[in-house]
Design a protein that fits this description.
alpha+beta, metal-binding, five-stranded mixed beta sheet, single chain, SWIM-type domain-containing protein
């Protein structure tokens, strides 16, 4: 036997659940409890066994241990002696998995229901938090069938573990008849049999097993006092074995299916209908067509909108609570003449103060579609803190993205920035262009370069007059980036000349796209090298999970995430080892490394001339904090030329970094952070209605909006800027002339 090298393993100890084999061959432990021990080379077998069971708090009698190795996580190996412990240590790296189970049942198997006589009463283990467990209980008078992995891996419905105990016995009550019918359906899926409804009357329901001669049946009726539906008779035995996956083909109402799959679809709201088809067949043994899966998604979406209808009434209460918790917070909403919700704006007092005392006058505005909120839009305004991290400033929910609603949002945003002149970076969709220009001035409105590049891509792909593909398209995009990030007019004209020589059509597009709004060389206001409104990728993930919830949950989720973000960033300040943040320090390090190869000529105590390898010369003035490359002036961070010059003087380079990036600024930004939202006394929507004044007084709670679906196929993306299509001119293949083909003018001349 090979000797085991000295090593330490983090050992996961599992008990009470089941090891499920996934389609890709990997395993996932479901249910039970999971704990851990640290195992080192040289541990004895008895010590290892005692450590595992002591950690799990389980009696080791009548129990067995099994483990896996790193090259096959699906295969369980019996741990019997010291050789097994050595094998576990030798063929695992970093961590290992050990499974404890009763000696009658292996951990990677489940007990299949035996329907030949009487159904086994079992309680399946569900996934619970660490430290709690539900163990399987099997009746003592029923023999235990042999373990079968086929129950998990052959495509049989995975919902069986949760639905096999939905019908308990006589006297069990259900809220209504639909709830009882749905429970019977789930029960049949879990226990793999078909049924038929013999009596389906308003006050009495009788259901039998569909197999001939099978005694299984259940009947239920309405209780006189409570009006609940309760089981009157339940014979829970079958005279046939359970159906296999090929025979189990249940039928279900679409509204039931939407209710069953709602939680799974909301967990991954962007899933395609084909994924819904796969989940329905895997979990319910139901084969759906693409249209049926699409219908299920639509029903769930309608259910979300119906649920959100009541939540709109609580918007005033939540806005008032935010203002009470943090005086100075702006939380306002408006509605239509019919008292239907129209738009919402929220900006917290701590965000307003942090932006005013420390953030650069630079705001990014972006819009996201809320698929679950009546097709409304979520508009976000954010800034940057001293370490170039995202700093959420305000948000709004707009029912429509027209110019009126955008102007309303921007007016509220203007109250947040007060009299401070700010630069706004936004997308290039048409509503933004006019609204932002009116509110902040066109000289302060910059186009998001990411959106410009997307429009450039569409222009290339959508034109038939020329073809630019593969390497040629990469070159065109590189020239566009050079135009955007060029700092001097010379470098801008040089990049513009390159794209003109590459294709004249691309040059014409760049000129028509208003480069003075997105190019560094032409935009005259500082943007600190942040040309994209999506420069912080965390903004997408910040709201991605909340795109399908209703309005009140969205407000609460945003508050919670903002609270965690501000608290986390405030704690990170204590970890700063330099006067500047980690991101800015990394940028300076890169500039210092790039400046090592520059040739330096000392002009004076404060002026230095630096020559690059390409022969270009730049002059740095340490007194004025300037460089002729303009990078230092535009970013506030010493460029590679300045870093080399500062090194020559033996000065502290951090003294030449703008105050926007200093530790003191970051401390001012996060000096005040928000508290968690108190929701213990949140009222019920019906209570708000009952307390509303009557007569001629205005009702101070908005109703859910009425939204009609517009005709035609919805747009996937808003209409962009300057996406034109150039038609290819008609050319005659006979004479080579333009404007006709050989069947028109040439054919008439020949005649």
């Amino acid at each position: 036997m090979m000797g085991t090298e000295d090593k330490t393993l983090f050992c996961f100890c599992h008990w009470g659940g089941k090891n499920k084999v996934l389609p890709d061959g990997s395993t996932s432990y479901v249910g039970g409890i999971t704990d851990q021990i640290i195992v080192k080379t040289g541990i004895k077998y008895n010590d290892f066994v005692n450590a595992v069971f002591d950690r799990l708090g389980v009696d080791p009698s009548d129990k067995v241990l099994q483990f896996t190795v790193k090259f096959d996580r699906a295969q369980l190996i019996r741990l019997r002696d010291q050789e097994g412990v050595n094998t576990l240590l030798q063929f695992n790296d970093g961590f290992a998995h050990v499974y404890a189970s009763s000696s009658e049942k292996e951990p990677n198997s489940e007990v299949a229901p035996n329907m030949a006589t009487t159904r086994i009463s079992t309680t399946e283990v569900e996934a619970v938090s660490l430290g709690s467990a539900e163990e399987e209980q099997v009746s003592a008078d029923t023999p235990i069938p042999a373990p079968s992995n086929q129950w998990i891996t052959d495509g049989t419905p995975d919902a069986a573990a949760n639905w096999s105990e939905l019908l308990v016995g006589e006297g069990q009550a259900f809220e209504n008849a639909d709830a009882f019918r749905l429970a019977v359906f789930k029960f049949s899926i879990a226990n793999r049999f078909h049924y038929r409804i013999l009596h389906n009357k308003p006050r009495y329901i009788s259901i039998h097993c569909a197999a001939d001669g099978c005694p299984w049946k259940v009947s239920a009726g309405i209780e006189k006092k409570s009006q609940n539906v309760s089981i009157r008779k339940f014979v829970d035995s079958h005279s046939h074995p359970p159906l296999d996956s090929s025979q189990l083909k249940p039928r279900i109402r679409m509204k039931w299916l939407g209710g069953i799959m709602q939680e799974d679809i909301l967990g991954s709201p962007d899933c395609l209908p084909r994924k819904v088809c796969e989940d329905a067949e895997k979990n319910l043994a139901i084969k759906l067509t693409y249209r049926q899966a699409w219908s299920v998604k639509q029903r769930i979406r309608e259910a979300i909108n119906e649920k959100s209808g009541e939540s709109y009434k609580l918007i005033p209460w939540l806005c008032n609570r935010l203002i009470e918790a943090m005086p100075g917070t702006i939380a306002t909403w408006s509605c239509t003449e019919e008292n239907r919700f129209k738009r919402l704006f929220v900006s917290y007092d701590c965000s307003i103060r942090g932006f005013d005392v420390g953030c650069r006058p630079l705001i990014f505005v972006d819009v996201y579609n809320l698929n679950g909120l009546h097709n409304s839009s979520f508009i976000v305004a954010s800034a940057l803190d001293a370490d170039n991290e995202m700093y959420p400033l305000s948000y709004g929910i707009l029912l429509s993205m027209n110019e009126e609603d955008l102007l309303w949002f921007l007016e509220k945003l203007k109250l947040v920035v007060q009299n401070r002149e700010v630069i706004v970076v936004s997308g290039t969709s048409l509503p933004f262009l006019s609204s932002l220009d009116k509110m902040f001035g066109d000289e302060n409105h910059s186009f998001c370069f990411h959106c410009v590049k997307e429009n450039f891509n569409k222009f290339i792909d959508g034109n038939t007059a020329f073809k630019v593909q593969g390497r040629g398209k990469e070159i065109a995009l590189k020239y566009l980036s050079d135009i955007a990030y060029a700092r001097t007019l010379d470098s801008y004209n040089e990049a513009l000349g390159k794209i003109c020589s590459f294709r004249r059509e691309l040059y014409d597009w760049v000129i028509a796209s208003q480069p003075e709004r997105w190019s560094n060389a032409l935009f005259r206001k500082p943007r600190w090298d942040h040309l994209n409104c999506k420069s912080t990728d965390s903004l997408n993930s910040f709201i991605e999970e909340e795109k399908f919830v209703h309005v009140l949950e969205l407000m609460e989720a945003y508050h919670e995430k903002l609270y965690m973000l501000l608290q986390s960033n405030k704690l990170k300040i204590e970890q700063w080892n330099l006067p500047i943040g980690p991101r800015v320090a990394e940028k300076i390090f890169e500039n210092q490394k790039a400046g090592d190869n520059l040739a330096v000529t000392v002009l004076s105590d404060i002026e230095f001339k630096l020559q690059e390898l390409q022969g270009r010369e730049e002059v740095v003035n340490l007194k004025l904090w300037t460089c002729t490359c303009l990078e230092w002036q535009m970013t506030g961070i010493p460029c590679s030329h300045a870093c080399n010059a500062i090194t020559m003087t033996s000065m502290n380079i951090y003294q030449y970094v703008a105050d926007w990036y200093k530790r003191e600024t970051q401390e001012h930004i996060y000096a005040e952070v928000m508290d968690e939202l108190a929701k213990f006394d949140i009222p019920h929507p019906d209570d708000i209605i009952s307390s509303a004044s009557s007569g001629n007084d205005v009702v101070l709670c908005p109703l859910s909006p009425h939204v009609k679906r517009p005709p035609g196929r919805p747009r996937k993306e808003p209409k962009g800027l300057q996406v034109e299509t150039v038609k290819r001119p008609i050319r005659c293949s006979k004479c080579g002339g333009v404007g006709h083909n050989k069947r028109t003018k040439c054919s008439s001349v020949a005649q």
